[in-house]
């Protein structure tokens, strides 16, 4: 494990060789949930059950942190995850836009304060909140396992 806090990475070591890796991040808007990515087993060691062992280890680890749901997105490895108890779900929003609301408000105020500005007005800021409202479209399959 790379550190005690999230995001963190777990590695699988066999005979002093790192042969597997998995990154775990919290999902800010879903309490007790995490997202796993970069799940990989060294190509020479695949199809021996080690990927499944890595997932088991990941599940055991997150349970110790009171995480009860694991989400992921995959393209092509659905069968592997199904075999390990994961099932298809709706895409989830991995970013919490609320975290940036205050700084954007501050920036808006700064640039609309006309008395102190000279020269042409700055271009309008992108409306990041429209991303929050828009439906997530993705070619990946989102999956979840409730522990
Ligand atoms: C996905 C991965 C981690 C699986 O590791 P592994 O050690 O081979 O997994 P296991 O041996 O525990 O399980 C293999 C099972 O997964 C499935 N599977 C694994 N890779 C697959 C593939 N490329 N296509 C279809 N099924 C696959 C098989 O159904 C197999 O089941 P079986 O044992 O009944 O034949 C590994 O193939 C890998 O590192 N792939 C490249 C990186 C990657 O795509 N990671 C997933 C990112 S979402």
TrEMBL record:
Q: Please provide one cellular component term from the Gene Ontology annotations of this protein.
A: cytoplasm
- Pfam (any one): Acetyltransf_1
Residue ranges constituting the N-acetyltransferase domain according to the UniProt record: 1-107
Give the molecular function GO annotations.
acetyl-CoA binding; N-acetyltransferase activity
Matching InterPro entries:
Acyl_CoA_acyltransferase, GNAT_dom, NAA80
- State what protein this is by name: Similar to Naa80: N-alpha-acetyltransferase 80 (Drosophila melanogaster)
Give the classification, highest ranks. Eukaryota, Metazoa, Ecdysozoa, Arthropoda, Hexapoda
């Amino acid at each position: 494990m790379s550190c005690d806090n999230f995001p963190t990475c777990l590695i699988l070591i066999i005979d002093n060789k790192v042969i597997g890796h998995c990154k775990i991040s919290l999902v800010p808007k879903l309490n007790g949930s995490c997202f796993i990515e970069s799940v990989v087993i060294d190509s020479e060691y695949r199809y021996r059950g080690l990927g499944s062992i890595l997932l088991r280890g990941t599940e055991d680890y997150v349970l110790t942190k009171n995480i009860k749901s694991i989400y992921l997105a995959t393209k092509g490895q659905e069968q592997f995850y199904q075999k390990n108890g994961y099932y298809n779900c709706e895409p989830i929003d991995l970013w919490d836009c609320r975290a940036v609301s205050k700084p954007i408000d501050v920036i808006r105020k700064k640039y609309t304060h006309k008395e102190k500005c000279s020269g042409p007005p700055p271009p309008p800021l992108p409306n990041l909140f429209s991303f929050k409202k828009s439906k997530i479209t993705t070619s990946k399959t989102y999956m979840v396992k409730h522990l």
